[in-house]
């Protein structure tokens, strides 16, 4: 798919503006093009097939497609389609949106697959499908944004920013609803391997990033899913595994606490003492004494 034209943000945005939205109807096939801005394409009515970097997406009323800068794309509609295009520059998000973190999460999820990544590493489609009450809400928000920009009433930039804030929250809610069941299913299949890996490597410096990468998860997704499944953060779980191993090793009187510390990956004995007391409420030495048989005391 060879690009026929590159659109520049200056073609659409008035001087000093970093966001716009407009409605447009289309029939037939558009130019193959790309652009230097972020684009949200929302279908108000009708149907279309949108090709992004060669991948076709079947779009109908209530669908919103996220298109990154420099992605080659075009659309085709045989029966006609009415859509709203929302065009924004990346720095508009951090400068104008109260939900800037939420908005950045949306783009990270769709464009870089850094959120809710599937266990096999596959790419999620950059598509949200609003249905039911969410469709009614999204329709109202998108059309109101377009109307505000057309009329340019007083404080319209602030009004449009508020609408966009709400839209991003709706997108996040849609993502969470779609992926709620997948979160537990995704990680449940990997649990035996994850547990074995932590048990077998707790003497090394295990990091969340390393384990997430091993099982093809993003760190943020893996952290949330792990805590949801085990009821405790990853770091606390690893610490508890280490402490349980220390407890077993303390039963061997031939091992000094320094040797145990080295085996379990604590480079500093004081670090081991702090971690052990945090979990058990006592020191390794006192624990060993308390567990000695009465005849040895």
TrEMBL record:
GO terms for molecular function: DNA-binding transcription factor activity; sequence-specific DNA binding. It comes from the Bacteria. Keywords: DNA-binding, Transcription, Transcription regulation. Residues 192-290 form the HTH araC/xylS-type domain. This is AraC-type DNA-binding domain-containing proteins. It comes from Candidatus Colimorpha enterica.
């Amino acid at each position: 798919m060879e690009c026929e034209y590159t659109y520049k943000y200056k073609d659409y945005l008035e001087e000093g503006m970093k966001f716009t939205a407009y409605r447009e109807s289309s029939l037939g096939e558009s130019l193959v093009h790309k652009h230097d801005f972020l684009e949200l394409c929302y279908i108000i009515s009708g149907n279309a097939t949108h090709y992004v970097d060669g991948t076709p997406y079947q779009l109908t009323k209530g669908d919103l497609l996220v298109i990154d800068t420099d992605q080659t794309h075009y659309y085709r509609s045989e029966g006609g389609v009415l859509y709203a295009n929302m065009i924004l520059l990346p720095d508009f998000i951090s400068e104008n949106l109260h939900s800037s973190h939420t908005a950045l999460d949306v783009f990270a999820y769709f464009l870089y697959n850094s959120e809710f990544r599937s266990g096999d590493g596959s790419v999620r489609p950059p598509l949200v499908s609003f249905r039911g009450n969410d469709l009614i809400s999204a329709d109202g928000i998108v059309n109101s944004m377009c109307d505000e920009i057309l009329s340019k009433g007083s404080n319209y930039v602030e009004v449009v920013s508020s609408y966009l804030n709400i839209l991003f929250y709706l997108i996040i809610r849609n993502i969470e609803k779609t992926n709620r069941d997948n979160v537990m299913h995704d990680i449940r299949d990997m649990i035996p391997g994850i547990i074995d890996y932590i048990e077998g490597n707790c003497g090394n410096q295990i990091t969340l990033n390393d384990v997430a990468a091993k099982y093809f998860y993003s760190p943020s997704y893996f952290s949330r899913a792990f805590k949801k499944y085990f009821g405790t953060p990853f770091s606390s779980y690893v610490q508890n595994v280490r402490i349980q191993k220390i407890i077993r090793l303390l039963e061997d009187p031939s091992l000094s606490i320094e040797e145990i510390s080295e085996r379990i990956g604590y480079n500093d004995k004081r670090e081991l003492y702090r971690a052990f007391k945090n979990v058990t409420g006592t020191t390794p030495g006192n624990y060993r004494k308390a567990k000695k048989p009465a005849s040895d005391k």
